[in-house]
Amino acid sequence: MKQGTVLTRAVMLLLFAAVCAYFAVAAWQSFHQSEYTMATYAYTVDDAVEATGLLVRQEEVILSGQAAAIVDVIPDQGEKVNAGGTVAYLYRDEAALERKRELRTLELEREQLIYSLQRGDTGWDNARLDQSIVDAMVGLKTSAAYGDLTGLEDQVLSFKSLVIRRGASSAGGAADIQAKVEEIDAQHAALQAAAGQDTTPIRVDKSGSFSAVADGYEALLTPDMLSTLTVSDLTALLARKPEAPEGAVGKLITSSTWYFTAALPVKTAERLVEGRSVKVRFSRDWSGEVSMTIERVGEEEDGKCPVVLSSSRSLADTSLLRKQTVDIMFSSTTGIRVPKKAVRDGLVTSTDPETQAEVTTRVIGVYVLTGAQSEFKQVEILADDGDFYLVRASLPDNPTELQIKKAFRAGDEVIVSSEEIYDGKVILAPR
């Protein structure tokens, strides 16, 4: 018994030592591995400069001219409005607003009844109408469930329109429909007369793009001022916090051209050439890129120059913006992002077409894990991105189909090694 106990303990100790040795070797390998791989991917490096400035437009503030309890703005943000068009209604109280809604409902109902008369009673596909009504109900229920109220009013009006059409298709005939139209006309006239006492339309005398927000900069900064704007002027304007005029219901942008002005360091401003284009990236209150023309690079003041850029694109998208920090894009380079440690010298052997002699050339490339072996692939460095290079495959002028197939591409696993690596080396346990 005693001898068996000693033997058992000895075996257990040996097993324990073997397990400890295994884990120790694995830990050592994990900290001292000589080869490991890293997946590559396409990446873009931007040569850009951040600038904070102001958007400038030809703007006119729209004033109500009177106090009102409720203002109902009609156009969408950035929507074009014709001269004489109505941009808002002023309501004295909730009753006036409710009357306006009733008028809109009556107008919709009359429109559908007239449409019914024009088509005739037999022109309706009742089965299709019933299905459309069900679909509209489902749409309303979905919007309510998700809390999406942005298009709720239009959805309700569309649903009412379908119900009116279905009712008209079941009416006794054209005479009944015509009588209903006359009844609606009488109700509409009575409501319209009452609305004249507490509802005021706001119209514009020029055409342009409507914006529902007036911020007070409309009179402080105009396109005419940009030709003489200095760094000091711009600094003072950025520091101000103007307020919209009392009674403003929005503003009208009367020109399709808008501007961005900022004070840039001299070295940055020197890279801008008047008359040329540059991309400007917005990424805060609005995300998008706009190609803008360099209108002016002003005189230096305290190490900075005033710069004015212009564009006739994306006016509706930028109509709410004023003070913005943007990126001025000088260039963008797209390639494959690889660690600097993975880029190394290699030897490539080729045949001289004239002498038919083999020529060995030292080139730049990366070692890629192909199966269980390393394969050297020649690359060209495009940009330096800190601990990484942006590269692309280096191919001859007229590459063969095989050369194109074997060229370095995004998704390849490059080998990052601290020890010697060579083409064809077997990697038994890559990490």
Features of this protein?
RND related barrel-sandwich hybrid domain-containing protein; four-stranded antiparallel sheet; alpha+beta; 9 helices; 431 residues; conserved putative lor/sdh protein from methanococcus maripaludis s2 fold; signal
Helix coverage percent of residues?
25-40%
Instruction: Please state the average pLDDT score.
Output: 83
Biggest sheet overview: 6 strands, antiparallel, barrel
User: Which structural class matches the secondary elements?
Assistant: alpha+beta
List the strand order in the largest sheet.
2-10-13-12-11-14
Outline type: extended
Structure description:
This protein has 431 residues and is an alpha+beta fold. Among the domains are: 90 residues, Beta Barrel (conserved putative lor/sdh protein from methanococcus maripaludis s2 fold); 117 residues, no CATH class. The longest helix is centred in the first third of the chain and has 31 residues. The radius of gyration is 37 Å and the shape is extended. The mean pLDDT is 83. Keywords: Signal. It comes from Intestinimonas butyriciproducens. This is RND related barrel-sandwich hybrid domain-containing protein.
SSE layout and pairing:
Blueprint: H1 2-32, E1 35-39, E2 41-56, E3 59-63, E4 70-73, E5 80-81, E6 86-91, H2 94-119, H3 126-146, H4 152-169, H5 174-198, E7 199-203, E8 208-211, H6 231-239, E9 248-253, E10 258-265, H7 266-269, E11 277-283, E12 287-297, E13 304-311, H8 315-318, E14 323-339, E15 343-351, E16 358-370, E17 373-385, E18 388-393, H9 401-406, E19 413-417
Antiparallel strand pairs: 1-19, 2-10, 2-14, 3-9, 4-6, 5-8, 6-7, 8-9, 10-13, 11-12, 11-14, 12-13, 14-18, 15-16, 16-17, 17-18
Helix pairs in contact: 2-4, 2-5, 3-4
